[in-house]
Design a protein that fits this description.
Keywords: Cell membrane, Electron transport, FAD, Flavoprotein, Membrane, Oxidoreductase, Transport. By secondary structure, the protein is an alpha+beta fold. It contains 17 helices and 19 strands.
Length: 669
């Protein structure tokens, strides 16, 4: 199959508008004849399901959580981008478009990114109308703050819980349609296969996670909005239930998987503290607006801190290395995530880490300068032009609490350290996946009728995602793209009629799922699923993580292949299929992670360049910055499944053409 991205002709500023004007429509009286399945009810899935139900389609929505409110979208803390230029600092649709392309290291599709920037303002209007409590400035207008990779303030936020508030808005819309009978909601259900009839997506096989029953559900279109695959590393900032199963199942049925090696490492996470840790905790990127990142200038000071002989507050200002401000003066602490993460790793690898964990990995995120600065400003605004030091600090802490209070509270609960008094300790960790199922401009995969939205697809972020763009993409896809493109597809399905679930295709898919589940339960192994997941995570982090090289990637491919054999030979899954069985759920997911992990290593090995979150140690300049190869690697790498041997997958290339942005070396200095 030749990849056809279906990018419209015409000027970049007019593509989406002109394209929408010529898409086919489904009349309101015909929409109740059509069924749409939505897998995943985070921001992308919930907004899509609510939108289609509001339009009059029949919708079935599925989530493995006990409620859509538990989707991992709630974990997004810092904000959502939109090009409204409320701060009058030069922002525009083009500027957001440019920042996103540059932030992704020129490995994203121009047309998709411009469309994202175009609809960004509509998202804010929609969410305000839903009652999302965005922060306001002193005049009552919506407030903004900066995020990494930009020199403007375009991030709308609700304290440190923006994702939760946006999800509650989408959930309200979803719930309204459930109440009106237009959405059938299936909580505690997991999609375990897609069903194709005559080449088209016609339904799914889902497992009721409470009873264990396998269910057949048919539809005229299937939308996958199941999130990213960061948990392939075991330790990540993702919720522990986050997985790739829905995306991987459709990959095995013909949907190409694109750029799997593009994984984002977030620079501000609480460092790993032990071998028995099950997940990592993100501290919002918004904190980099006010916090300054540093390590001691002297290696002996770092060693003393790790040994417990010195504290951060014992290090004088002149003995602190604010390494992001030193290396990238134009952007400082607000460089993109991949840049900040590599810089922190470089300092720790050089022996300047301050956290006394197994690897001595950690740097400081310090708010003392901001506390003093904002304290003085607040005092002055109140008429006190000569405040005492105590008054300044008190007022500064109050300002910080208003902006970031819940984040500071969360940090203190986890670490038992007060970040108002001492700097936070942070270190990079796996956070987001830019790769995902390949989709065209319509967000349709290579399976006709199967659409993919949000983090589950690859389309908008290139090799690195700018902060506060995940929420933007999820809502853009669900509210403002899919309602047009899926309707265009469904216009040809009006006469199809109800799709039966007793066909041979549904029976074959269900039997395959049942066989896999019973295979796990009948296996006479001795080791838990987590045992293998942790082993996979170690391989992935050490050899397919922040720093990659040909030798390590080659070793990873072989080690994961051996791990796969051991997993299927020696995994032990207790219980039965006809009950709540979390170990069985995990076994299916880890089997998919193992296959994906091997493909990620293959994708990273073939991409002989460094770009964004993909850092090949062989391809860096004298200052440790990425060296792209635009002549040979300006393409999307989309992989086609060829059976159980992941080494047999076939790579297809979608050439990336830049007509409106000039490709250049990224420079944040």
């Amino acid at each position: 199959m030749k990849l056809d991205s279906k990018i419209p002709e015409g000027n970049i500023s007019d593509k989406w508008t002109d394209y929408k004007d010529h898409l086919k429509l489904v009349a309101p009286n015909n929409r109740p004849k059509l069924d749409i399945i939505v897998v995943g009810t985070g921001l992308a899935g919930a907004s899509a399901a609510a939108s289609f139900a509001e339009m009059g389609y029949n919708v079935k929505a599925f989530c493995f959580q006990d409620s859509p409110r538990r989707a991992h979208s709630i974990a997004a803390q810092g904000g959502i981008n939109a090009a409204k230029n409320y701060q009058n600092d030069g922002d525009s649709i083009y500027r957001l478009f440019y920042d996103t392309i540059k932030g992704g290291d020129y490995r994203a599709r121009e047309a998709n990114v411009h469309r994202l920037a175009e609809v960004s303002g509509n998202i804010i209007d929609q969410c305000v109308a839903q009652g999302v409590p965005f922060a306001r400035d002193y005049g009552g207008m919506l407030d903004n703050r900066s995020f990494g990779g930009t020199q403007v303030q375009r991030t709308f936020y609700a304290a440190g819980q923006t994702g939760q508030q946006l999800l509650l808005g989408a959930y309200s819309s979803l719930s309204r349609q459930i109440g009106q009978g237009r959405i059938q909601m299936y909580n505690r259900h997991e999609m375990l296969d897609i069903v194709k009839v005559n080449g088209k997506a016609r339904g799914i096989i889902a497992r009721n996670l409470v009873t264990g029953e396998l269910e057949r559900h048919s539809g005229h279109a299937v939308i996958i909005a199941s999130g990213g695959y960061g948990n392939v590393y075991f330790l990540s900032t993702n919720a522990m239930g986050s997985n790739v199963t829905a995306g991987w199942k459709i990959h095995k049925k013909g949907a190409y998987f694109a750029n799997p090696c593009f994984v984002q490492i977030h620079p501000t996470c609480i460092p790993v503290h032990g071998e028995n840790q099950s997940k990592l905790t993100l501290m919002s990127e918004s904190l980099r607006n006010s916090g300054r990142i540093w390590v001691p200038k002297k290696k002996e000071d770092a060693e003393a801190i790790r040994a417990g002989k010195l504290k951060a507050t014992d290090i004088n200002e002149e003995d602190r290395d604010y390494f992001l401000e030193r290396r990238y003066p134009a952007f400082g602490n607000l460089v993109p995530r991949d840049v900040a993460s590599r810089a922190a790793k470089e300092r720790c690898d050089a022996g300047f880490g301050i956290e006394a964990n197994a690897t001595n990995e950690g740097v400081y995120l310090d708010f003392s300068s901001e506390i003093i600065s904002k304290g003085k400003q607040t005092a002055y605004a109140a008429g006190n032009h000569n405040p005492s030091d105590d008054e300044v600090i008190k007022l500064g802490k109050a300002w910080i609490e208003e902006k970031y209070g819940n984040l500071f509270q969360m940090y203190q609960q986890i670490t038992d350290e007060n970040p108002y008094e001492v700097p936070m300790k942070i270190y990079p960790a796996v956070h987001y996946t830019m790769g995902g199922v390949w989709v065209d401009y319509n967000l349709q995969s290579t399976i006709p009728g199967c659409f993919v939205a949000g983090e589950a697809n690859f389309s908008d972020h290139g090799a690195n995602r700018l902060g506060a763009s995940a929420l933007m993409q999820g809502l853009a896809d669900g509210y403002f793209v899919l309602p047009y493109t899926v309707s265009d597809y469904l216009a040809g399905e009006i006469a199809t009629g109800k799709i039966p679930t007793d066909s041979a295709e549904f029976t074959e898919a269900e039997n395959a799922v049942r066989s896999q589940l019973e295979g796990f339960l009948n296996n006479k192994g001795t080791k838990s699923v987590d045992f293998f997941h942790k082993k996979l995570g170690h391989i992935m982090w050490n050899k397919v993580g922040m720093g990659r090289n040909a030798q390590g990637l080659t070793e990873a491919i072989a080690e994961i292949a051996a791990l796969k054999e051991e997993f299927f030979r020696d995994v032990y899954v207790p219980g039965t299929t006809d009950e709540l069985n979390t170990e069985l759920e995990k076994a299916v997911r880890v089997a998919d992670f193992i296959d994906l992990g091997q493909l990620m290593a293959r994708d990273a090995l073939q991409r002989n360049e460094s770009c964004g979150g993909h850092f090949r140690e062989e391809y860096q300049d004298a200052e440790g910055e990425t060296l792209r190869d635009d002549e040979n690697f300006a393409f999307v790498g989309a992989w086609e499944y060829q059976g159980n041997d992941i080494n047999a997958e076939v790579l297809h290339k979608e050439e990336l053409k830049y007509e409106y942005i000039k490709i250049a070396a990224r420079n944040y200095k």
